[in-house]
Amino acid sequence: MSNNSDDVIYSIVLIKKIAEHKDMFGIPDSKTDLQIMPLTEYRELVKREAYFFVDHNGFLRHQFSGDVIAANKEQLDILIEGLKEKRQLLDDAMDCAKE
Q: From what superkingdom does this record's organism come (predicted)?
């Protein structure tokens, strides 16, 4: 069982790792900054694999956690279907972010 001191240290380290990841890829710190980010810049984040990458074994992984998200094309297709369903719940890009 961990004590509160260990939890605090873990939290501090995690916050630092998140900040380093965001800084390395230029990911905005706030939701507002993400909303007004030009779509060209967001596209560049995606191209630079700020969120996902394919490892040497051909697995799609989450960039920050390293979790395997999909192990094959069929799983990726299912993930894309799920994202398309979520797309309907999102707002359109703000005019200032459009290309």
A: Bacteria
**Sheet strands (E) in the chain:** 52-54, 60-62, 68-70
Distance of CA 69 to the CA centre of its chain: 12
As a whole number of angstroms, the distance between CA 36 and CA 29 comes to 12
Contact 35, 28 (CB under 8 A): no
Specify the DSSP class assigned to residue 28: -
Give the tens place of pLDDT for each residue, 9-47.
888 888 999 999 999 999 999 999 999 999 999 999 999
Determine if the pTM surpasses 0.85: no
As given in the structure block, the two tokens for residue 53 are: 């990458």
How many domains would you assign to the chain? 1
Residue closest to 63 by CA, chosen among 38, 36, 32, 27: 27
- Of the pLDDT bands very low, low, confident and very high (cuts 50, 70, 90), residue 2 is low
Please tell me the distance from the alpha carbon of residue 16 to that of residue 25, in angstroms, as a whole number: 14
